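Table S4 entry, PRA1 family protein.
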Amino acid sequence: MASMEIAPLRPWDDFFPGPDRFAKPDLSDLTKWNNRVISNLLYYQTNYFAVAAVLFLIVGFMNPLGMILGGAVVTLVFVGSVWAGENKAMIKNFKKKNPALFVVIVMVASYFLMSLCGGVMVFLFGITFPLLLILVHASLRLRNIKNKLENKIEGVGLKKSPMGIILDALDQQEERMNKIQDFLESKFKE
């Protein structure tokens, strides 16, 4: 098993360069888009965690109790869903067949539980907004050579990172996403 390594914080001019390094994803080729998102999540993970932490802290200063409650709810739902995905056959099969839908269900369940506690705005601005910003950046940022090389090293298993572990727990590995995309394309062509 590879040891856990924290990815370095990428320089600002690499993380957010000029408009020449951003492009709208090709929505007709979901495999390519998925690969771009997963590659960017792995390569810029420390930058993404820093952006999320800053937004989390800003909302946390405005509503500390709501943010603690929101973080606890999302953490419990995430850990519970990963545990259920590993230990319950029906959920494990659903998670393997529908990994993106599984993530959406985890987020909706978190939102529902937060709405019961009265912390919807905290959930939206402190948890969902950073995730949306990360997804938008990962979707629009074009990959570079260093990005592709780092992802291949992690994909082979030579090293593990926090984002890689999170993606593994949610069954969002690039290979599985490619297999799902190939399956969907073959079904729609028939």
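Confidence is low (pLDDT under 50) at residues 176-181.
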